[in-house]
Amino acid sequence: MLNFPRGSIVAIDKAYNDYAWYKQLTDKGIFFVTRLKSNAKCRIVERRSVVKNKGLTYDQTIEFTGAQVSKKCPTQLRRIGYKDAMIGKHYVFLTNNFKLAARTIADIYKARWQVELFFKWIKQNLKIKSFVGTSKNAVMTQIWIAMCVYLLIAFLKSQSSLTRSMQQLLRLLQLNLFEKSDLMALLRGDPPNDGLPDVNRMISYES
């Protein structure tokens, strides 16, 4: 179990729904924001007014009434309804934070989506298929190294006005990792002057 500093705000995907954990976080003074499952049984303790033009549909204090859930999380929580005007989808958020504005709670969860998009980008572009180590330091070091390499290639591409894609450039460098040659000449695809076959012509590039 991760240890969060008191006062932290944890954004949790509803797939990791754990009511007992929600109670533990609350007892430790740690806030969470997640999505409430549609089949959750609860009763409304209090209703608060909301600003409709901000996409909010309701702001309520609730208690769980399900036999098992009420035992795992016997504490009052906050339920917020929010409709995304851009896609027309309605979301129901659950949190133990009663101080922040309802729209702020919605924005916190929305920011979590950006984190997911970032990790999706990492998987697609950094090509990290497996981690050398499993500790936090090992994982972070490998990700930082991969990002540094990607940024260096992006800088070279920008400075040299190369038309090849990032994936093509990375693939080219992988195939010529142990070759001693001029980097920019290699990336540009200049013809070889040593009589050896041109590796660039032998590569089938994939975007």
Give a quick rundown of the structure.
This protein has 207 residues and is an alpha+beta fold. It contains 7 helices and 6 strands; from the N terminus they run E-H-E-E-E-H-E-E-H-H-H-H-H.
How does this model look, in words?
This protein has seven helices and six strands. The chain has 207 residues and is α+β, with helices and mostly antiparallel strands. The protein has two domains: 9-118, Transposase Inhibitor Protein From Tn5, Chain A, domain 1 (Alpha-Beta Complex); 136-202, no CATH class. The chain has a six-stranded mixed beta sheet with strand order 1-2-6-5-4-3, with helices on both faces. β3 and β4 (56-64) form a beta hairpin. The longest helix is centred in the C-terminal third of the chain and has 25 residues, at 136-160. The chain is elongated, with a radius of gyration of 25 Å. The protein starts with 8 loop residues before the first strand and ends in a 5-residue tail after the last helix.
CATH level-1 class of the largest domain: Alpha Beta
- Kindly state the mean pLDDT as a whole number? 84
Strand content: 15-25%
Structure class: alpha+beta
What CATH architecture of the largest domain would you give? Alpha-Beta Complex
Overall geometric form: elongated
Q: Can you tell me the number of structural domains?
A: 2
CATH level-four homologous superfamily name of the largest domain:
Transposase Inhibitor Protein From Tn5, Chain A, domain 1
Q: Main beta sheet, described?
A: 6 strands, mixed
